[in-house]
Write a structure and sequence with these properties.
- The chain has 516 residues and is of the alpha+beta class.
- The chain has 3 domains: 137 residues, no CATH class; 225 residues, no CATH class; 68 residues, no CATH class.
- It has 21 helices and 10 strands.
- Strands 1-2-3-5 form a 4-stranded antiparallel sheet. A 4-stranded mixed sheet has the order 4-9-8-6. A two-stranded antiparallel ribbon has the order 7-10.
- The chain is globular and about 65 Å long.
- The termini are far apart.
């Protein structure tokens, strides 16, 4: 009871702050008590008023503090919850906050490594960027050879864990209440959404996990021989749960397009690199940078390579989601909407009681209007917005990992278009998607899978006698009427025969599947 009162008080304060900024953001299908109807969004308002409301919402969220900033960034990935207009407004939300002092940063370093900060870094500069969870400093370290090199040091805000724990408790209370009182909200699974946000925050609170994400992406890039995209190297000796040290990036921030162009960088090639690198990471590796806005991207003027930073928000796709993404994109690229619809059903994203043909028709209505149009008029954002609008019609349950992926694709498209306004995202995506599908579903992949299955079948045949012997022993042990004194063993064939038959049936099924 006390928790309910405490969380109601916290949420009421947050609601009062939003109302003070004149924010309406709750969709009209959500039932609200009379005092909270001031938060109702008016979907009939003009585009200018919607934009102004989005800007007010961003200001209100900054006023509410770090956890709400993260919530706002997360809701930017849920246009099905807040609507496409507010999602776009929240997508521009950057968690710039006042920095904490250098003295506090020194204290965090000394607590993390149990020695003086001067013994960790030769030089340590003032904060360069302060976000909701951490801030970044430029520092200098001494190498084993006696030389020095510049590094970037990211340090968590003092006591940030307590603040997030308190606010997340309120978010869970609100989500459970929404699911209990509103049928439409249950379809949107707000509790699952808060679970995803909480998991993301937990990962961001341990900078060793961010270091591991950078290391994993570096390994994926090296293994595949990718060029044109790099990540900074982790200094593991100077990295802990609350401190992350990376190589300093001497690059041009992508926020300064004119400086990039003045450096002689091929803008069209760079735009293509942005799109194709993201798709390779998502489709090929199932592991992608989920916050690829201009502020997290730099360009090396020496070779035009793209360098990503800030790996606090990462996306991960399983094999099923990787194939789903590749085939969906390929379905739109080749205008095979029925196949794209089938993939939605095969992946379980659309309930089986819906019509594959009808959903394919809905996808055609989304895809056809953009086909044949000038490349600068083709918008992934518009396509995704329409796809979200179909979720309720076809009773689709939104998958958080796919929502994060889709929102990131919109951001990536925007970044790429800022470099090359005429970039056609479908043309850029086609070779990446085709290469992956060929590798996974083509003749070589079938041969590889067949060889793998033959090996599994051979192992099963080899183990079959042992399995039968063990099965017979278990049956003997479980037989309450079996005499326990030492005596000649009766034949086990009556017991073993069903096991042999079952094993043979399984092997026959496996062989049939393997060699149809």
């Amino acid at each position: 009871m006390f928790k309910a009162i405490r969380n109601t008080y916290r949420l009421t304060k947050a609601g009062a702050t939003l109302a003070w900024y004149g924010v309406g953001f709750v969709p009209d299908y959500v039932t609200l008590p009379a005092p909270l109807r001031i938060l109702r969004a008016d979907e009939r308002e003009t585009a200018a008023k919607r934009q102004a409301r989005g800007e007010r919402l961003a200001k209100a969220i900054r006023a509410l503090g770090p956890t709400y900033i993260k919530l706002g960034q997360f809701l930017a990935t849920r246009p099905d919850v807040v609507g496409p207009h507010l999602a776009n407004a929240l997508g521009s939300l950057r968690d710039r906050l006042p920095p904490f002092s250098v003295d506090k940063a020194h204290h965090e370093i000394e607590a993390a490594f149990n020695r003086r900060w001067q013994d960790v870094f030769v030089e340590f500069g003032p904060p360069l960027a302060a976000a909701s969870i951490a801030q970044v400093h430029k520092a200098v370290v001494r190498t084993p050879g006696g030389n020095t090199r510049a590094v970037a040091v990211k340090i968590l805000r003092p006591d940030i864990e307590k603040r997030f724990e308190r606010d997340l408790e309120s978010f869970y209370f609100a989500a459970h209440t929404a699911e209990r009182v509103s049928q439409p909200m249950r379809r949107l699974r707000p509790v699952a959404a808060v679970d995803t946000l909480a998991q993301s925050v937990v990962l961001e609170m341990d900078l060793r996990l961010e270091a591991a994400a950078i290391s994993e992406m570096a390994d994926n890039i090296a293994k595949s021989g990718d060029v044109g995209f790099r990540v900074p190297r982790v200094d593991w000796e100077r990295t802990s749960k609350r401190v992350l040290t990376l190589d300093w990036i001497d690059g041009i921030p992508l926020t300064d397009i004119e400086a990039v162009r003045a450096a002689g960088v091929d803008m069209e090639a760079l735009g293509l690199t942005v799109i194709q690198s993201f798709l390779k990471h998502a489709i090929r590796d199932g592991f992608f940078h989920a916050d690829m806005h201009q502020g997290n991207l730099f360009v090396d003027p020496r070779d035009g390579a793209l360098i990503a930073v800030d790996f606090g928000i990462m996306g991960r796709l399983g094999p099923k989601e990787q194939r789903f993404l590749a085939e969906i994109l390929y379905g739109f690229i080749t205008r095979n909407y029925y196949r794209a619809s089938e993939i939605h059903f095969e992946a379980g994203y659309v309930p089986a009681n819906q019509s594959v043909a009808a959903f394919g028709q809905a996808l055609r209505a989304i895809g056809e209007p953009i086909m044949g149009r000038p490349s600068e008029e083709i918008s992934m954002a518009r396509l995704l917005t329409q796809l979200f609008e179909n979720t309720e019609v076809f009773q689709m349950k939104m998958r958080p990992e796919l929502l994060l992926l889709q929102k990131t694709m919109v951001v990536v498209e925007g970044v790429a278009r800022s470099l090359d306004p005429k970039l056609n995202i479908w043309v850029a995506a086609e070779p990446v998607v085709r290469e992956w599908l060929t590798g996974q579903l083509g003749p070589r992949a079938q041969i590889r899978d067949a060889v793998s299955n033959v090996g599994a079948l051979a192992v099963a045949l080899k183990q079959a006698p042992d399995l039968i012997e063990r099965g017979a022993k278990i049956v003997d042990a479980l037989d309450p009427d079996k005499p326990r004194e030492t005596s000649p063993q009766p034949s086990r064939w009556p017991i073993a025969l069903p096991l042999w038959l079952a094993t043979g049936a399984l092997l026959a099924i496996a062989a049939k599947l393997l060699f149809p």
